[in-house]
What we know:
Number of strands: 2
Number of domains: 2
Helix content: 55-70%
Oligomer: single chain
Mean pLDDT: 86
CATH superfamily of the largest domain: GntR ligand-binding domain-like
Shape: elongated
Radius of gyration: 20 Å
Structural class: mainly alpha
Amino acid sequence: MAQTTAPTSAVADAPADPVAPIRAPRGKGRRLRGAIAHKLGVAILSGEFAPGETLSSEVVFAESLDVSRSAYREGIQVLTAKGLVESRPKTGTRVLPRDRWNLLDPDVLAWAFAGEPDPQLVRSLFELRLIIEPAAAGIAATSRDRADLKQMKDALAAMRRHSLATEPGRTADRQFHDAILRATRNDALVVLSASIGAAVSWTTQFKQRSRALPRNPIPDHVLVYEAIAAADATAASAAMRRLVELALEDTQSAMAG
């Protein structure tokens, strides 16, 4: 349900070794910087580096990752921009407290779900969705136009065609939720579409790591669409709330299993 682009960071089945060499091709500046940020970001989000902990020196880390010191510094700059670390002369690079992390950044969410996500983070994401999405669906029911409804309907068709067990299906899911946020005509809500979409995508993928989805959630999406199409704000809000609540139940079941 985010923007039409998927989160940029790759998902791994388990937390990566934070000091294993980076395999990204040398000379590919942006790709290498992203690979370094991903590896260290996953290590921080998984708890391998705790808040307040000082990372090894630039020289040690660059050598352990088999990258240049400049590439390592660029990777650290990415983490700094996302609130995960701070670097100071003489004191080095320190992991910041959790409340400084930009947990709504799509890359940070990807790093969180690269390993076993923190149950507290998962619940926080769903609580955020429960605050925002039902209200957004209600607003969309009274402000949407034909183009909005077509985007939602097309996304539903793609979800049915591909299923949420596939990347194209999850992309359609993000597009469905994104269309609802955009249909509100509320700029502040639209800004949240990337974060909401990333949260939906990663939790949906997480639920299917070890087993198939416990039920088909597409009918829940259809109920939301039908209420919005009928311009019934109360029904749209209630349907969206139920959709998110059921998604939380499915995710908690996956985590317990």
